[in-house]
Amino acid sequence: MKKILLSLALLSFSTVAGFAQESRQDVSLSLAGLIPPHVVGNTVQQDATIGIWGALGSYRYMLTPRSGLEANYQYNQDVQKYVTSFNSIRIHTRMQEVSAAYVYNFSFRNFNPFVEAGVGGYIFSPIKDQKTTDLDAKQSTDVGGFYGGGIAYELSPSWDIRVEYRGIVVKAPNFGLTDYRTNRYYNINNPTIGVAYHF
Question: Chain centroid to CA 186: how far?
């Protein structure tokens, strides 16, 4: 009887240890770039500088070895430029993203390609400094979507390096300025590179 109880106890501990070694969660921090496209609508042309001072933080929970859910927060800056027949303005912009996504992973040795898609809230806020020429600009908030794909290279069971292309589809902001409304949706290119910690 003692041998049976000891065997059951060892089996329970080995099962718990096996689950403990399976990392189902990770957090990542990445450098993020913004590359907005040229947009034309309602006789307004909208362009933006490339945003290079951004960061993307993510938390990922794996439901199965291949499928997971992800929550993201991103901060970035660029300068939006609007040109009409009569005038042109610039708005130094703070872009923030709060989003959630479904992630599907593949595995090949130390390489783990993945694809994802999700929805989020996108906040475009004017920074009133020397780069902004219209001080009447107000915050623009919109719901949008994003899609992406990338590859994670496993450095160890706890760490990997991630490189990803993300595309953000959202309505072009007008900052409450009706003369500069394009009424267009556009695709912002959002490449990222960073590290992830699994636990």
Answer: 16
Full-model pTM: 0.86
Are 96 and 125 within 8 A, CB to CB?
Answer: yes
Nearest to 82 by CA among 72, 74, 92: 92
Sorted by where each begins, the domain ranges of the chain are 24-198
Query: Tokens for 143?
Result: 């719901």
Q: For 53, how many CA atoms within 13 A lie in the half-sphere containing its CB?
A: 8
CA dihedral 166, 170, 175, 178 (to 10 degrees): 150
> φ, ψ for residue 16 (rounded to 5)?
-60, -45
Cβ burial of 86 (10 Å; 0-12, 13-18, 19+) is: exposed
The model's pLDDT over 88-119, given as tens digits with 9 standing for 90+, comes to 999 999 999 999 999 999 988 899 999 999 99
Q: For the structural domain made of 24-198, what CATH number should be given?
A: 2.40.160.20
